[in-house]
Amino acid sequence: MTSPSSTIVIEDDELPPSWRSANLQVQRTSLRTSPEILIEPNDAASGSIEPSRKRKRAKRKQPDTLDTCFKKLRKTFDQRDQEVEKLDQKVENLEQEVEKQQKQVQELQSKLLLQEDRHQEELSRRRILDCKICYEQPDCWHNLLCGHMICEPCAKLVDLSTCPFCRRTFSGYVKCYPFAG
């Protein structure tokens, strides 16, 4: 521990000799009464003496100023913005691809429905010539007077005084031979 009459001497290697005390007498103050530290200004600000190597190095190694921090932040945000733009472009491309695929699916579904409709029409045409009792295509038909048709083998099995479909009574039928192509 130092005595109360101890002094602090601050010397700067940049001080010109005229500012330095020749006899090195330092003003003594008590730390308890006056906690002042005497610092003499350097002449570097007035331009008479060049700054020391220590100060030059310190100036080179100055901490980042607020402007440089903002520049770094802008740079990182710009990089992030570019990445986001690339990802947005990829998303747009994928959405366009999905739309194309959906259009293709809709076209294929409509084609499939058309084919199913054609198939159903073809089946219904074939079924027109099928006997409604035995579900076969006969060579000879019995056309009843009510308008229904029965194949010849089924007509022999059924009583032809009434129609097996509508139960109307009639007294005859017309024999038909459809064109087999």
Quick tags:
181 residues, mainly alpha, 3 domains, three-stranded antiparallel β-sheet, Znf_RING, zinc-finger, metal-binding
Structure description:
The protein folds into three domains: 1-61, no CATH class; 63-128; 141-176, no CATH class. The chain is 43% helix and 6% strand. It is built from three helices and three strands; from the N terminus they run H-H-E-E-H-E. The chain has helices spanning 53-60, 66-128, 152-157; strands at residues 141-144, 149-151, 173-176. Strand 1 and strand 2 form a beta hairpin. Mean pLDDT is 75; it is low at 23-41. Residues 131-167 form the RING-type domain. Pfam families: zf-C3HC4_3. This is RING-type domain-containing protein. Keywords: Coiled coil, Metal-binding, Zinc, Zinc-finger.
Helix content: 40-55%
Average pLDDT score: 75
Distance between the termini: 128 Å
- Tell me the domain tally: 3
Order of helices and strands: HHEEHE
Taken from the alpha-carbon principal axes, the silhouette is: rod-shaped
Q: Largest beta sheet: what is the strand line-up?
A: 2-1-3
The parts where pLDDT drops under 50 for at least 5 residues are 23-41
> Helix count, per DSSP?
3
Largest sheet entry: 3 strands, antiparallel
Beta-sheet strand percentage? Answer: 5-15%
Number of strands: 3
- Alpha-beta content class: mainly alpha
Radius of gyration: 56 Å
Summarize the SSE layout with pairings.
Blueprint: H1 53-60, H2 66-128, E1 141-144, E2 149-151, H3 152-157, E3 173-176
Antiparallel strand pairs: 1-2, 1-3
Protein name: RING-type domain-containing protein
Domain RING-type: 131-167
Keywords: Coiled coil, Metal-binding, Zinc, Zinc-finger
